Predict the 3D structure of the following.
Amino acid sequence: MGVQITDFRPYTKNTLQGFLTLRMTSVGLEIRDLALHQKNGKQWLQLPAKPYQKPDGGQGWNYIISFYEKPTFKQFQEVALKALEAFRRQAKRNNDGYKT
């Protein structure tokens, strides 16, 4: 699974750490606004979603895209988080004003 991170925008709120743009190079697909979350030393990605109002007045989220097989999504998460780590290391080495 070829994955490349092309952008990361830090934004901290609760578990949210920022938003990234990811390219799946083997299929020519770019996904924007993946949310990076972190809690208790664990990181995970949330695919783009749009909000909706629940009948009880609360807010829920409908995913715009999703993986229908859990093992494939888990593999995607692992590969994408490694690619993000490499992107952040490179940005830090370049000292391009990016803040980790």
